[in-house]
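Q&A log
Question type: sequence-to-structure
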Amino acid sequence: MTALAPLAAALAVLTAAQPVASETAGPVALPSGNAVTLQDIVTTVPGPAGVTYRFRFVAEWLTPQTPFDTTGRDILFLCESFALPRLPAMGVAPAQIVISLSSRAVAFGASRPDAVQLFEAFQPAGDTCIWQMF
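Response status: OK
Response body:
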């Protein structure tokens, strides 16, 4: 039975990490001229700052060559224009918001070598998102 304990613990963590909030949304137009679609919103896994909401988007146009000045503006836009307006309806105010872009849908916490993924963390401050270093 002790050999199964690590597996049971890992399954408990993965089960707790399942997305708990999702909404149906069409494509979200970005300042870069690209668009993303919301994959899900994960609210059940605390981050280093405490309560953390993760807004996960699929950006099929994302490649390793996509310039960060493009994705950085788009990610900040998603935080301030998409995530912040939804916070009042989500209950507990988060200490941190994480915006992620992925070139394809990836299960939360999973590794997928064929997907390009970017993550940025922000502290919500009124109608502004303040970038936080990971």
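Response note: Residues 58 and 109 are 15 Å apart (CA to CA).
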